[in-house]
Design brief:
The complex is a heterotrimer of chains A (265), B (374) and C (392).
Chain A (H helix, E strand, L loop, with lengths): L1 H27 L16 H8 L1 H34 L5 H13 L2 H14 L6 H25 L3 H9 L4 H30 L2 H6 L7 H11 L3 H36 L2
Helix pairs in contact in A: 1-11, 2-11, 3-6, 3-8, 3-10, 6-8, 7-8, 8-11
Chain B lengths: L8 E9 L5 E10 L4 E5 L6 H9 L6 E6 L2 E2 L10 E4 L11 H11 L4 H14 L15 H13 L5 E5 L7 H18 L3 E5 L2 H7 L2 E6 L2 E6 L1 H6 L4 H6 L4 E11 L2 E6 L5 E5 L10 E6 L14 E12 L3 E8 L3 E8 L12 E6 L4 E5 L11
Parallel strand pairs in B: 3-8, 3-9, 6-7, 7-8
Antiparallel strand pairs in B: 1-2, 1-4, 4-5, 9-10, 11-12, 11-14, 12-13, 14-19, 15-16, 15-18, 16-17
Helix pairs in contact in B: 2-3, 2-4
Chain C lengths: L2 H31 L5 H5 L1 H8 L9 H13 L3 H14 L3 H11 L7 H8 L6 H9 L7 H5 L3 E3 L5 E3 L7 H32 L2 H16 L2 H11 L5 H8 L13 H26 L3 H8 L4 H29 L3 H6 L7 H10 L4 H25 L10
Antiparallel strand pairs in C: 1-2
Helix pairs in contact in C: 1-19, 3-4, 5-6, 10-14, 10-16, 11-14, 12-14, 14-16, 15-16, 16-19, 18-19
């Protein structure tokens, strides 16, 4: 009895989680102009609208530029920092860890408002660079976490082995450490990209219409006029999230296999 | 380049203090001769692995100088030291095949492809692994991985080989086989090897010399025979092999012979005197190995008593007899099992004897006086 | 410092510099802004200097009037002037029009101004108004922080509650707190049986079920809020469905209500509760329950005495996360809530983008930060593994 009740309850909750996302799909293909179900007929007009409208296209392009730049910067900075953190128990390490995790703990709205005030003072507000810096700061802690996790399963003797065989430290890192921690690095990179691509609050504060990202453009659209184009944009973002989720799961599986293989030794 | 008069490696007054103030190596002076097989042995935390790590360049000495071929080594980074190192868990690169693992040090030295291929092949032949060159390390057995690790440490003709408990993960039979194989390679190649282990039989089987470490210091260094049969202090005696330990009071010393009373005024026994040993009237620990205790009386032996067998423990190739000796206490004797020889039984009363040369008298710390026999 | 430590520092340094310069400094700068008070002194430097020597008793000296007229006549920077009027108006409603009127009449005035100015504009004959200017010539002020707690300084210098019609912030903080508590409780209530059910499935079935959690988790908050925004419209699919199934006769107001805020926030934050719970439950083998059963515990005792205590850390970790996130939530309530459903973050955005008042932005941010910090500390005290997210 309890078992069946739990099962029904769980499936209702799971349905609650995905149903709103699924409901968006038919709406985005509606041939009508009002967002309601059932749709009067199907058409691609709202996707056409999306792909023929400069504002949506510019926003999409900005999102990809900022997302990619954030991913590259966050992965580089996060991986080197994680390696440094993993390497030794230096004095002040605990304080550094606390400082580096601050961007995850401080409410995003506070971060956004503070960055707006400070970035305005130095001319970084309303620039894509400003947004890249802001996104890098909030995304890098996740890279540090994933890379640290994979470094902790890495046998430090492999690095020593490479050094003893004549590899200078940088070569040893590239040839031995990097291939082993690559799943962690890749997972961090994907997460950094997704963080930037989905981020809205900071974008609201520090971008002007010229630097609108896709979420920022959707937000503006929602406040002006609720057109089914927004549903189309939402579907596009859902699909992209799905792709990112799929890639990151694949990377995680690969990483687990690697760890499992090493554990069998 | 090397002058043969100079030892290959010299540790000159080397200290290693870890953060937090733990001194793991204390004023170490150690020489490794050309072509020598030197084993560092000691309990964990004795400083033997740290010594190897300092020579490898993974740890920097806090004080003192390490010289190789006369030149200071302290500031030379690991990758320029040219030492082949075999790690406890082998540290084979899991994303490279066996051949790629072996080629790695040669690639780092920018050898051309043909040279690399040939040397990888020759080295794999040497360790009898040619058939496995395209396998991944995870597809190999423990013993095969061990050989790959050895081959990888040798393939680039290093100036010296360092091994950190390389056989620790293998089962007993394989370990004994590999001991002989490493010894053979050492003889064939004539290269100096520094070997760290906590297994005394390994140390005794393979080494030219053995250095016994404790608390960051070398307690004794010498040939395996010396270290085993003429231990210079109580620690070395008890760490290397088994012992009967007797607490005693020294009555007198003459020439090389110590006379002591077991316990408080017990039977007088005779032991071999060592430099820095106990003086007359002092407390002492007497040690004699179980295999040195004979079960017959012999004229040349200084110590002759009688013992009653309290227990017989069968070990396959030998038996251990627990004996109770009046005025001494419990003694353990070890006898080989010889076909046709009559066995021993509980309650037998047997003659028991040992030579004073096989019994060593060591000083005792006042704090340890209450300790019983081991 | 050992060589390794030096290399560690070197590798950590670039990120540390970025986080310090791009994050910690801006936050510090904002915190300073919460008490900084430069506007009046910048626009009325001479007046501020003279009032500095005035004891605040009776009318200020003639020199103060001279300085004021001089300051206003020579003020050509509209930016500084505007900032000053906004600043004074924030402290005392109506100050703005006084200053603007003064600016218009000042050119036509004759000395002595202590007589001519109060004739034209009565406020200048009131020592209270002068004291307002004197108080706000001080380089630091507590007014923003006080205001964020619905308090204000009277011209006499004592602290009092603001009039009820302007007292919004205490309500706002309480509302933020209670909405977050309810969202946390609802999430925990929904997540526990769900995570439990998934943890009892076979690996394969569980990974499909988890996909239903992970897909929303990876979808941006905005997209999920947008979905609810569309679904809850008065002509939207939810209303249509309710009407069609005859539960209601005509569409009801769903969007811009507290109900919409709860539904959307729970939807957005639920995965944060399910994921840690699931990982804790998955690690619980059946052996403890079997042991409890073999020791004679009936099912409800097995659950209460064994399973619940073992899985409580998962609830705690998820709940702390959900609560922390909801306290700072902006996008979801801003889109699907009405004005009465907004939380602290809405006013931070409001003071930044609409009513430009960086002092209030800073004060509200500081209080929200302290609020969040307190929650993390409490959570950390209760469950040691929450809060410090990066662990080496």
């Amino acid at each position: 009895m309890t078992r069946i009740a739990t099962k029904v309850f769980a499936w209702i909750v799971l349905a609650f989680l995905v149903a709103p996302l699924l409901a968006i799909f038919p709406l985005s293909f509606s041939s009508g102009t009002i967002l309601t179900l059932p749709v009067p007929g199907y058409s691609l007009q709202w996707y056409e609208e999306f792909f023929l409208n400069d504002r949506w296209l510019d926003a999409t392009r900005n999102s990809f530029i900022v997302g990619t730049a954030t991913m590259v910067l966050a992965t580089l900075l996060g991986t080197t920092a994680a390696y440094g953190l993993n390497m030794s128990n230096f004095r002040g390490k605990q304080i550094v860890l606390v400082l580096l995790s601050m961007p995850m703990v401080v409410p995003l709205i506070v971060t956004a408002a503070s960055m707006f005030l400070a970035f305005s003072a130095v001319g970084l507000a309303n620039t894509l660079w400003g947004l890249v810096i802001a996104h890098t700061i909030i995304a890098t802690p996740y890279v540090v976490i994933t890379v640290l996790a994979s470094l902790q399963t890495f046998d430090p003797n492999l690095m020593r082995g490479a050094l003893s065989l004549g590899a200078p430290p940088v070569t040893a890192f590239r040839e031995v450490v990097l291939p082993m921690i690559l799943p962690g690095v890749a997972a961090g990179a994907i997460f950094a990209f997704a963080t930037s691509f989905d981020e809205l609050v900071i974008a609201i504060f520090i971008t002007g219409p010229g630097e609108f990202t896709l979420p920022r453009q959707m937000f503006a659209g929602l406040r002006e006029f609720l057109s089914p184009t927004i549903a189309a944009a939402a579907v596009i973002m859902i699909l992209l999230s799905f792709v990112l989720l799929f890639v990151s799961e694949a990377v995680r599986r690969r990483g687990e296999k690697l760890v499992a293989r090493r554990a069998n030794q | 380049m090397s002058s043969r008069t100079e030892p290959l490696v010299v540790f000159d007054s080397v200290d290693k203090v870890y953060e937090g103030g733990v001194k793991v190596v204390d004023n170490l002076n150690l020489r490794v001769e050309h072509g020598e097989f030197l084993t560092l042995i000691g309990p964990s935390g004795s400083g033997k692995t740290t010594t190897l790590m300092m020579l490898a360049g993974f740890e920097a000495p806090t004080k003192g100088i390490i010289r190789f071929d006369g030149a200071p080594l302290n500031d030379v980074p690991t990758y320029k030291r040219d030492f082949g190192i075999v790690f406890q868990n082998y540290a084979l690169f899991p994303h490279m095949t066996v051949a790629e693992n072996l080629a790695f040090p040669l690639r780092m030295r920018r050898e051309n492809k043909a040279v690399i291929a040939e040397r990888v092949r020759n080295t794999l032949d040497m360790v009898k692994l040619s058939a496995l060159s395209d396998r991944m390390p995870t597809q190999l057995s423990g013993g095969q991985q061990q050989r790959v690790a050895l081959a990888r440490a040798l393939v680039f003709s290093p100036r010296m080989v360092l091994m950190d408990e390389p056989l620790g993960a293998l089962d007993k039979q394989l370990r004994e086989h590999m001991q002989l194989e490493i010894k053979r390679l050492h003889e064939d190649l004539g290269i100096a090897m520094l070997y760290v282990t906590h297994d005394q039989s390994e140390a005794l089987t393979m080494s030219d010399r053995v250095a016994v470490f404790e608390q960051g210091k070398i307690q004794q260094i010498g040939s395996p025979r010396d270290v085993y049969s003429r231990p210079s202090n109580r620690f070395v005696a008890s760490f290397m092999g088994e012992n009967n330990r007797l607490d005693a009071t020294v009555a007198g010393i003459s020439e090389e012979c110590v006379t002591a009373h077991v316990g408080q005024g017990g039977v007088a026994v005779r032991a071999h005197a060592v430099a820095g040993g106990p003086a007359a009237g002092e407390q002492a620990t007497l040690m004699v190995r179980p295999e040195c205790i004979q079960l017959f009386h012999r004229d040349g032996f200084e110590n002759n008593v009688e013992g009653r067998v309290t227990d017989v423990i069968y070990h396959g190739d030998h038996v251990r007899l627990c004996l109770s000796v009046e005025g001494i206490g419990a003694l353990v004797a070890r006898r080989p099992v010889v076909t046709g020889e009559p066995g021993f039984a509980e309650g037998d009363v047997l003659p028991v004897s040992w030579s004073a040369r096989d019994m060593h008298a060591f000083t005792i710390d006042p704090s340890e006086r209450t300790e019983g026999n081991a | 410092m050992s060589k390794k430590s030096r290399i560690s520092w070197l590798l950590v340094a670039p990120l540390l510099v970025l986080v310090t310069v791009g994050f910690l400094l801006p936050i510090g700068y904002t915190m300073v802004k919460a008490v900084e008070n430069p506007e009046v002194t910048a626009a009325l430097p001479r007046t501020a200097a003279v009032l500095d020597t005035w004891d605040g008793e009776g009318m200020p000296p003639e020199a103060a009037f001279d300085a004021l007229v001089e300051d206003i006549r020579s003020s050509r920077s509209g930016l500084e002037f505007g900032a000053m009027t906004r600043r004074l108006n924030f402290e005392l409603n109506g100050s703005r029009s006084v200053i603007m009127k003064t600016r218009r009449t000042v050119d036509a005035l004759d000395a002595p101004y202590s007589e001519s100015l109060p004739v034209e504009i009565a406020e200048w004959g009131d020592p209270e108004f002068w004291r307002l200017i004197k108080t706000n010539s001080n380089p630091v002020t507590a007014s923003y922080l006080l205001r964020a707690l619905d308090l204000q300084v009277t011209p006499g210098g004592s602290i009092e509650r603001v009039p009820a019609d302007r007292a919004i912030f205490l309500d706002l903080f309480m509302r933020t707190f209670w909405i977050s508590i309810w969202v946390t409780v609802i999430c925990a209530f929904l997540a526990y049986p769900t995570a439990y059910y998934i943890s009892t499935l076979s690996d394969r079935a569980a990974s499909y079920a988890m996909l239903l959690v992970l897909v929303p988790f990876w979808t941006s908050i905005l997209v999920r809020t947008t979905a609810w925004f569309i679904l809850l419209q008065t002509e939207g699919p939810v209303n249509m469905a309710l009407v069609w199934s005859s539960i209601i006769d005509e569409p009801i107001q769903l969007i811009f209500t507290r109900f919409a805020v709860y539904v959307a926030m729970v939807h957005v934050l639920l995965p944060f509760q399910i994921l840690p719970l699931y990982s804790v439950m998955k690690r619980q083998g059946p052996q403890y329950l079997r042991a409890a059963a073999s020791l004679g515990a009936p099912p409800w005792r097995q659950f209460l005495s064994v399973y619940l205590p073992l899985t409580l850390p998962g609830v705690a970790a998820g709940a702390a996360m959900v609560f922390m996130l909801s306290v700072g939530f902006y996008v979801t309530p801003a889109l699907v809530g009405g004005l009465q459903d907004q939380m602290v973050s809405y006013y931070i955005a409001f003071f930044t983008n609409q009513s430009i008042n960086f002092g209030m932005v800073a004060a509200l941010s500081l209080l929200l930060l302290v609020f969040t910090g307190a929650i993390i500390l409490i959570a950390h005290r209760l469950i040691p593994n929450v809060g410090g997210a990066i662990r080496a």
